[in-house]
Amino acid sequence: MLRQCFDEFTRSVVHACFLISPGGIILRSNAAAAQMLGQDGDLLADRNITQLTTTPAEMVVHYLKRCLQSREPVPGALRWRTDTPGHEVDCYCHGYRLLISSDEQEPVVLLHCQLREKAGNSFAALNQTLENLRLSHHKLIDKSNQLTAEILEREEVQKKLAESHERLTTVLDGLDAVVYVADMQTYELMFLNKYAKDNLGITDSGVGKICWQTLQKDQTGPCSFCTNPRLVDAAGNPADVYRWEFQNTQNNCWYDIRDRAIRWIDGRIVRMEIATDITKRKKSEQVLEQKNAELENFTYTISHDLKSPIITIKGFLGSLVSDAGTGDFERMEADVKRIARAADKMQALLDDVLELSRIGRLVNPAAELSITEAANEAIEDLAAFIKEKNAVITVEADMPPVFVDCHRIREVLQNLIENALKYSGSQAEPRIEVGSKVLADGQCAYYVKDNGIGIEAKFYDKIFGLFEKLDPRSAGTGIGLALVKRIIELHGGKIWVESRGPDQGTTFYFTLPRQRIVQED
Question: Residue 405 pLDDT > 90, yes or no?
Answer without folding.
Answer: no
